[in-house]
C-alpha cells in the first residue's frame, strides 16, 4: 500500500470511529476486511459480520461515546493509534462519563485485516460496577503503596 493510501485508510478509520453509533454500524465495511481479526481485553472476533454483531451489543445501551485520538504512528502496512475514549452507560458510574486511555494496533493492505485494542479493563468497566468498583479501587490504592 502506498503512503497516500495508508494515510487515507487511517484517516477514514479515525473519522468512522468519531461518528460510529448503533445506527451506522454498516459503515464498518468501509475500513475493515471481510476476514478482520479483532481483539481486545475481552474478546477475539473473526470476520466482519461477527465484529458488527459485537459492536451492536456494545453500542446498544451506551448513551454517549467519543474517541479523542492523541497520537498516530504509521507506515504503509500498520498503524498505532493512542486515544482516550469517553463514554456513558446508565448502569456504570451512575451514568456519568467514564474516561478510558487506550491504544489500537492496526494492520492493513487495502483494508484493515487486524485490529487489536489495548486498554485497562478496570478503568473501562470493573471500577465502575456498583458492587466491585470500591473494592477494585481500594486494591489498586494499596498496591501502589
TrEMBL record:
Gene3D superfamilies found in the cross-reference section: 3.10.450.50
Matches recorded under InterPro entries: NTF2-like_dom_sf, SnoaL-like
Domain SnoaL-like, first and last residues per copy: 15-110
Protein name per UniProt: SnoaL-like domain-containing protein
Originating species: Shewanella putrefaciens (strain 200)
Amino acid at each position: 500500500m502506498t503512503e497516500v493510501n495508508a494515510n487515507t485508510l487511517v484517516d477514514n478509520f479515525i473519522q468512522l470511529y468519531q461518528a460510529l453509533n448503533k445506527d451506522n454500524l454498516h459503515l464498518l465495511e468501509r475500513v475493515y476486511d471481510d476476514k478482520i481479526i479483532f481483539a481486545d481485553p475481552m474478546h477475539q472476533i473473526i470476520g466482519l459480520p461477527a465484529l458488527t454483531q459485537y459492536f451492536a451489543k456494545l453500542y446498544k445501551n451506551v448513551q454517549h461515546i467519543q474517541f479523542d485520538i492523541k497520537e498516530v504512528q504509521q507506515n504503509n502496512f500498520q498503524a498505532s493509534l493512542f486515544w482516550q475514549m469517553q463514554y456513558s452507560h446508565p448502569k456504570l458510574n451512575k451514568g456519568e462519563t467514564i474516561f478510558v486511555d487506550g491504544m489500537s494496533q492496526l494492520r492493513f493492505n487495502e483494508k484493515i485485516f487486524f485490529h487489536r485494542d489495548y486498554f485497562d479493563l478496570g478503568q473501562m468497566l470493573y471500577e465502575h460496577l456498583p458492587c466491585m468498583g470500591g473494592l477494585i479501587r481500594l486494591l489498586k490504592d494499596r498496591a501502589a503503596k
